[in-house]
Every structure is written in structure tokens, then in C-alpha cells.
């Protein structure tokens, strides 16, 4: 549950929640259109199952869009889902890269602060700086 909250806060911070909520609305509305336009889909549950199978690119084969309307809705939902997955992946990766960059910047700042105050450090802190300096590759 914590990971979901973190993901949702990242999504909100990047203003992608509107795109996600619009996709959910399109998903349910698309299922309604599919139910009304496809002759082999008789109830809303089957229409939701069809849109889920289409959006996840699984395509179980239980139902197939026969009408032009059904095919257009299927293509739209599938493309929207691909766009959404790509956007969410980019947002999460960008967030974690920012976190890593902040940590590196903080670490470099602390390291530089210690270098500026070498005379005030004890032997253990000097040894730590020496080891960190050996790890830095130019």
C-alpha cells in the first residue's frame, strides 16, 4: 500500500493523474460502446473483459471486434494504454533519477564541507575521506 501511495504522489507531482483518470473513464465508456456495438457481447461484464484483454494486448480470443465502431474503440483504447504505460514508466524513472541526483549532490556537498574543514576532523573522519578520495575516478 505504501508503494501505491508513493506511485500516486509521483503521478500527481508530474500532473499525469489527469491522463490516468481520463484513461479509466475511457476504459469504462469504451466498454459501454463495445457492448452496444458488438453483436456477440451481450452484457457489460463481457464488454469490460474484452476491453481489458484489448488494452493489455493479451487478446484471449473469446471476443473479437466485428463492427467498425468496435474496432475503432479497440484501437483507440489500445493506443491510449500504450501511451499511458510509456508515460507512467517515464515519470517513475525520471523521479528515481532525480532522487539519485539529489543524493549524489548531498553526498558531494558533505564531502566538500569535510574537505574545507580538514583541520577540525579526527583521524577516523580523515581516514573516511581518504578512502572516498580513492574511489573517485577522474
Short summary of the structure?
The chain has about 140 residues and is mainly alpha-helical. The protein has helices at about 1-15, 15-35, 45-55, 70-115, 125-135. It has five helices and no strands.
Question: How would you describe the overall organization of this protein?
Answer:
By secondary structure, this protein is mostly helical. The protein has helices at 2-13, 17-37, 44-55, 68-116, 123-135. Helix 2 packs across helix 3 and helix 2 packs antiparallel against helix 4. The longest helix is centred in the middle third of the chain and has 49 residues, at 68-116. The protein is rod-shaped and about 85 Å long. The two termini are 42 Å apart.
Oligomer: single chain
Order of helices and strands: HHHHH
Number of helices: 5
User: What is the approximate shape?
Assistant: rod-shaped
Q: What is the helix content?
A: over 70%
**CA(first)-CA(last) distance:** 42 Å
Which structural class do the helices and strands define? mainly alpha
Write the topology of this structure.
Elements: H1 2-13, H2 17-37, H3 44-55, H4 68-116, H5 123-135
Helix pairs in contact: 2-3, 2-4
Comma- or semicolon-separated keywords:
138 residues; single chain
Amino acid at each position: 500500500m505504501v508503494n501505491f501511495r508513493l506511485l500516486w504522489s509521483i503521478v500527481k507531482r508530474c500532473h499525469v493523474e489527469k491522463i490516468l483518470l481520463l484513461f479509466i473513464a475511457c476504459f469504462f465508456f469504451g466498454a459501454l460502446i463495445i457492448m452496444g456495438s458488438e453483436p456477440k457481447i451481450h452484457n457489460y461484464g463481457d464488454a469490460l473483459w474484452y476491453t481489458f484483454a484489448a488494452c493489455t494486448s493479451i487478446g484471449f480470443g473469446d471476443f473479437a471486434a466485428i463492427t467498425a465502431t468496435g474496432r475503432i474503440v479497440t484501437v483507440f483504447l489500445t493506443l491510449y494504454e500504450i501511451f499511458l504505460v510509456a508515460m507512467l514508466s517515464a515519470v517513475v524513472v525520471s523521479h528515481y533519477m532525480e532522487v539519485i541526483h539529489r543524493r549524489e549532490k548531498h553526498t558531494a556537498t558533505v564531502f566538500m564541507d569535510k574537505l574545507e574543514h580538514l583541520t577540525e576532523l579526527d583521524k577516523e573522519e580523515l581516514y573516511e575521506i581518504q578512502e572516498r578520495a580513492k574511489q573517485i575516478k577522474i
